[in-house]
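Cross-check.
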Amino acid sequence: MEKIGARARVYEIMQRYPETVDYFLELGVCGCSFGEAAGKRSVELTLEELAREKGLSLEKLLEELKALVE
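Predicted model, tokenized:
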């Protein structure tokens, strides 16, 4: 497994690790062409941006994703 970092794109993670889709849906990101961030398509949205937009800890977000894909 490659390390998932802060600059990884949400859409790419969802494509590579389908087991993360439900997690992202719970966060309000569908993985279709549009994310929650105003004017930001999910294919462009990074984990860092997602954490900031949702008021989440980036470290916690990365830890939870890591647990899902291991």
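Helices lie at 10-16, 21-26, 47-54, 58-69. The chain has four helices and no strands. Passed to J.P. for a second look.
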